Every structure is written in structure tokens, then in C-alpha cells.
Description:
By secondary structure, the protein is of the alpha/beta class. 48% of the residues lie in helices and 13% in strands. The chain has 25 helices and 20 strands. The strands form 4 sheets. A 7-stranded parallel sheet has the order 3-4-2-5-12-1-13. β7 and β8 (305-306) form a beta hairpin.
Amino acid sequence: MLTDDTKAAIRAAYARLKDGLTGFRGRSSQLKMIAEVAKALAEPAGAAVIEAPTGTGKSMAYLIAGLEVARAQKKKLVIATATVALQEQLVQRDIPQYLSLCGVEAKVALAKGRARYLCPRNLRMAGAEPSAQGGFDFDAELAPWSRPPAERDTKAIEKLGKAFESREWNGDIDTSPEPLSDLVRGMVTTSAGGCTGRKCGAFAVCPFFVARRAIGDADIVVANQDLVLADLTMPRDEDTFGGVILPKPEESLYIFDEAHHVPGKAIDRGAADVHLATAVRRIGRLQNQIHAAYSLTDKESIGNLTLEQGDEKMLEMSNALEEMEREIRLSWTPSSSETEPVFRASLGQLPENWKAHAEYLHLITKDIQRWLRTVRRTVVEMEAGGPTQEALSRELGVALERLDRQVRTWYAWSTDDRESGPPLARWVSMTPEQQLVCHASAVSAGGLLRSVLWDNASAVVMTSATLSAGGNFRGFADSVGLPNEAVTISLPSPFDLERQAILAVPALNALPDDREGHAREVSEWLAKNLDWNAGNLVLFTSRAKLDRVLQILPIEFVRKVRAQGSLSKAQLIAEHCEDIEAGKGSTLFGLASFGEGLDLPGKLCETVVVTQLPFAVPTDPVGATYAEWLESRGRNPFIEVSVPDATRLLTQYCGRLIRTETDTGRIVLLDRRVVTKRYGTGMLRALPPFARDIERVA
Length: 698
């Protein structure tokens, strides 16, 4: 319950912010958001979803309300974002500014997963000469370099070591003093499986554990959504989840910013797959590592298994994996016309013989997993094992993580779905090398989030610029398992959108399903109607369409295009801004990732062109299984899921244009389906209230 004292503290904080922040403008949307965040967080198991457009001042709104409620209840404020950019903005600018202006003292911690921090042990091993790496007699594959390093890689390792040793760098990979290749990044970081925790000689200075210790003392924790979801799904004991890395859910008030990413990230948390040929091949490597462990620890038996008995179990698993592959190949012959062949189980129901095989694989893999945990623990806990012990601990930990994916996949393949909810998606894909990969995934995050978040957290607020489809939150509510009593609010934009921007739908003849015809018309429209001396953003739903338009576009315009993938996103945007500032004109061609989170105010972006309505690919096995289940219940997946999802994405794309009160420009939609199809009328109506310019086809 929101007390009078807390209300007074929130009003006082807002007044200090208003007086102290240069150029501050009071906005009714921000005041409404402050009030709703405070009310939701003050209620036991409070829940709210707040759609707040660009310019609302979301971060200050939830900081004012969230911190004061957290202080009153003596709880932690956990802010989860989808991007590193927003994390850094909060930690480096917004939160310090708020605390300073309001005269509030609070400890702030930035929380990231292990893979975003340097592993000092791995850095040391990567930088050592091969002769100093223990001269691994047991297995050459324990050496850290998977291939001879390039000179730039060894120099990068050396520079990282010096910067960390001199304390010029704190080990946060996102602020690395040296650009890192994927090879180097993978070598100098670690996963949970590769980490030995307190047993590691570098534990005291480990950047991950330094950051983790800071979390325990913090009043405000800023984390990425992946880490928050990972923590929420970690078992704390037999009956409770969460609070392993981050504060306990029951002692935390959660703010999920950029919350439109939450459903997809939560689904990804539960997805698992097994590349059959790779899994078989890795058994030989794992056996070598286990032999090394038995030899190093000088044990005849570990986990009640002799080495010979362990080898027999590994052979059983290898044979079972090969038998599963034979069963699949006998039952499924992909069409030669398919470029990426996929067998998707209808309503998630696999053939009975596959299911029976998966059940056996689950049992044997689970058994080996238990044994391997004991083997690794024995290696980790031995005294003075030197570099070989460290390398083995890491490699066995990584092997355990891979085994866990297998265990989860075979469990998902061999168990029955609950009658009350949608089935799991289960499918097999074939790689370009004709190798089989077995997959399993939930099709909705609703059930998971209900159990680990809404039922456990003290209170939760989710916010983003786009969460509804024209004010209708049903799709988002279903996707996150939102409690029935939760508050849902769509706040109005603080900008005068009708005056500042025009939404145009030109009179093209071709629809996107005519791939060649539509690509030609898009190219012709861009050549004739785009202001190539200004700043533009052109968004595509597929790489193939983007490439085809570039092929057709006259060369004088191609020279002014910066296409996604030609350079890093940061480089493309930097060069784009540089050319616009120099008066040269620049046009960005991008896919979905350029339609979200891109901040190009003023003349940096005066036209946004959306070449096609952003409907999800219908062949996606997860989406296809969910759609099939909805149809089996007499529901319409296109109207219930596809149209609302596309509408939300389209609204995100439109949000790239007007970033401030002085911005002006146009949004051009080169897809006539918003005019010719019945659903298009609803999509247009759900978009922000820009002025309309819809051309009629002659």
C-alpha cells in the first residue's frame, strides 16, 4: 500500500528534479507513469504494464517512483534492460543524475552475465607459452588455443593482460581497451560451467565476482534481461527459484524496461537442441578428458564407477545417439527443393519410436551427467593440481553444460505436454552439411513467467514504447502470462505527432508476395522520391529483399547507401552521422535490429521507409506450432498473434522518426496491404496519430 509518507517523498523528488534539471519540461504522461509505477510497486505482488512512447521520460519516472517505494519497503530495485546501451545510459548518466539532483544516497551495481567479464584464469592461460601451459600429456585439446593464433590475437591478449594488471581496466568486456575477435573473446571469458568459483586462484580479483559482491550491497541493481531471467530460473533450494546471482525475488521490486523483448528472451531460456553428429564426435574428446581426470586424481573409481565402467556408459550413449539418427533418417526424407529442410512435429507430437528413443537417451545422458559432475568436483577439489587441473576443470565444466542441453532436449522429446496449455515445439533441422539437429522449445513464455516471476516477485512493472496493438494488450499479456489483476496503460505521446510527421502510403501496384515486382517498385520509388541529400532510414524484413533492391538501384544512389552488414552497426551509424553533419546526405538500409533502439534525432533521420509489413516468418517452428495449437482451439492465429505482433513492430519502426519535440519528417509505407486488406485498416488505426497521405491507385 502506498503510504502518505512515500507519496510525499515522490512529490519532493519530482520537485527537486524539475528545479534542478536544465531544460526540464513537465509532461502529463510522465506524471501519470510515476503514479502508476508507485501504485503497482507498493502493492504485494503488484503488476503493471505501461506503454510509454518516446519522450515520456520513462527512466526518470520509474526511478522516482521505484527508488522511493523500495526505500520505504527496504527492498532492492532491480532494473532489467534488453540492451547494453540502455544499461550504460542508466548507470553512467540517468541514475547518478537523479541521485545528485534529489540528494539521495544509494549504492548502484551493474550486473551482467559471466560472458561479459574477463576470466583472469583464462587470460593467463591464453597468454602463456605452450610449454608453460602444463605440457598437457593427457590431451592436447586441453590447450586453450583451438588453432594457431594470429598476431593481432596474441597482441590483443597481451594488451588486455597489461590493462587489467595495471588496473586501468576493470575486466568489463563491453569496455575492453582493445577490439576482440570472436576467438579471443571466447578464450578470455568463461561460462558458468567453466568457472570453478572460490576454488579458482583468481577468485579474489575476478571481475565477475567483484561485480557480484557489489550486487549484495546495492540498493539499485541494473542488469540485462537475460541475466534476470537466468537468475529467476535458477533453483535456490528444492522449492524456490531465483536469488542465486541477483537479490531474492521476494525482496525485489522489478522494472523491465524495453519489455517488448521479454517474451522472446524467456522462450529462448527454455530452448534446447542437440547436433547429433557433433554430440557423437565430442564423446571421444570427453573420454580423453575423463581419462585425464582419473589419472590426475589417481582414482580407481569416481562416483561409484571405474574408468572401464564409465567408458561403457559413454559407448552406450554414443550408440544411442547414432541409433536416433538412423531412426530419423529412415522416417524423414527432406525434399530436394528445400534450402533449409525442417521436420516439424504437428502439435509437437513426435513419432512414437523417436519418443521412445529420446526417453532412453534422457536416462543414459542424465546418468552420465551425474557421474561427470562428481568427476569434475573431484578434480576441482584436489590440492595443487597446477595448470592441468585448471584446464581440466574448465573443459569438464563446459562439457557438463553441453550435456545439460542434451538432457533438456531428450526430456522435452520424451515427455507428454500438459493438457491445459500449448504443446512444446519439437522439430528436426538439417544443416547444409546434411547433419541432423534435434530441437525443442516452449511456444509461449506465459507459463514460465507466471511461475518464476509473477508468483515470486514482490512486485513487477514492465514498460516500453510499444507493448500494445493500438491500446489492446491481449497479445502481450498472453505472451508474458500477465496476472488478470494487472494494470495495463497506454500513455499518449508528449509530441504533436499530427503536426510533426506524415505517414504516407504511395500508390505502388506490386504487393510483397510478388518478390521481383515489389523489389523493382521499391527501388524505383526510392530513386525518384527519396531526398538523397538528407538523412534516411530504409527498413527491410529480409536480407534477400535488401540485397535485390541494392542490385536494382541506380549506382549514383547506391553510393549513398550504408547497408547493414557491410560494417559494424556502430561504424555505420557513426559514418552516417558524419556525412549528415557534413551536408552530404546518407541513407541507412537495415533489417529489424535497425528498427528498434536507433536514436537519430533531427536531420539525422528525416524519412523512415518501411518496405514491407513486418510479419513473422510463417515457417518458424515455434510460431507455427503455436499457430497450429490456436487453430485446434478454434482460434485465428493470424488475427490474434501475427497482426498484433506486426503492428507493435511497425509502431517501433515509426518511433525511429520523431525523437524530440522539434523533429519533423515522414514515414513511408511501401506495402499496400494496409489499404487493400481488411486487417490493414486496424493496423493503420493503431499507429501513432501522424497526418495521413494515402495515395489512391488509378
